[in-house]
Amino acid sequence: LLSSQNNSSVSQTTRLTTHWLSHLEVYVLKDAVSFPINAVPRELMPHFHVVQRKSELVYLPLFFIDPQLQPTYYWMELPGVPTERLNFTIEVIPLSIGRFRLRCMLAQAVEQLKVMGIKDKDLEDLQGIFTETNLYLLLTTVVVSAFHLFFDFLAFKNDVQFWRNAENTTGISIRTIVWRCFSTSIIFLYLYEEKSSLLVVIPSGISAIIEFWKLCRMTKVSFSLRGGVSIGQRSREEEETDKLDAYFMRRLMYFMIPLCVSGAIYSLLYMPHRR
């Protein structure tokens, strides 16, 4: 009885839909490449068919066909039993040896991810990156992302190096550091809740950690396993900076508080919010 109830609940939550593949892409190797008999690339082995012609071994034309790796817009959902004729198009696409091997390696990677238990939805997203995105656009995105991470690393490195060597923080606003701790934490939590790309979430989290570390440097607070928490003494020049900082920040708050309150009220009344 319990198993029947579980099966009925699964059938109610899972709705199977029939799809028709209206366009099939067939990839063929266009280059005449010679392979040593004992050095054929592993990803090409399932597509190899060797025949003997006279005194030499030759392989038949290499084709790659995988309906699962077809773009999603080629799959047409069928609401029921089709009453009209369905179109089916076969497109033969010649590829160079490099792009042909890339397709084969992608298919093998998908099969390995299935064995590892990766969800089908995640696999579809991964396949869409390679099948529905232009290769040059994909390479450009990878290069730009790499430069983005590189410059983020340089910014973090220079920031940490400056604050590590700064023994005197005269002229630096401690209230600005507190505000940056608050704002970077809010940004990080928002990006994490929205499940943004790790390329954005991780640098944002590192930036928030660095801001809190800078606040500890400003307030002369240090942590150690033996001594615990220790608070140092700020210099006279730093205390003078704090007085000037408090004076001008107080004047600035007269303008900032009305703007923040009015912006919050406008957002509450006219902007959509998640429940």
What does this structure look like?
- The structure is a single chain.
- The protein is α+β, with helices and mostly antiparallel strands and 275 residues long.
- The chain folds into 2 domains: 19-132, no CATH class; 140-233, Monooxygenase, CATH 1.20.1280.
- It contains 7 helices and 9 strands.
- It has a 3-stranded mixed sheet. Strands 1-6 form a two-stranded antiparallel sheet.
- It is elongated.
- The chain starts with a helix and ends in a 5-residue tail after the last helix.
- Mean pLDDT is 81; it is low at 1-6.
- Its main location: membrane.
- Keywords: Membrane, Transmembrane, Transmembrane helix.
- Belongs to the CLPTM1 family.
Write the topology of this structure.
Blueprint: H1 2-13, E1 18-21, E2 23-29, E3 50-53, E4 56-59, E5 63-64, E6 75-78, E7 89-95, H2 97-115, H3 120-131, H4 135-165, H5 174-193, H6 198-218, E8 221-224, E9 228-231, H7 236-270
Parallel strand pairs: 2-7
Antiparallel strand pairs: 1-6, 2-5, 3-4, 8-9
Membrane topology: Multi-pass membrane protein
Main location: membrane
Pfam families: CLPTM1
Averaged pLDDT = 81
Shape category: elongated
Structural class: alpha+beta
Strand content: 5-15%
Largest sheet: 3 strands, mixed
Task: Write the element-wise H/E pattern from the N-terminal end onward.
Answer: HEEEEEEEHHHHHEEH
Give the quaternary arrangement of the chains.
Answer: single chain
Distance between the termini: 38 Å
Number of helices: 7
Strands of the largest sheet, in order across it? 5-2-7
Helical proportion? Answer: 40-55%
- Count every beta strand, where a strand is a DSSP E run of 2 or more residues: 9
Would you identify the regions where 5 or more consecutive residues have pLDDT less than 50? 1-6
What's the number of domains?
Answer: 2
The whole-angstrom Rg is 30 Å
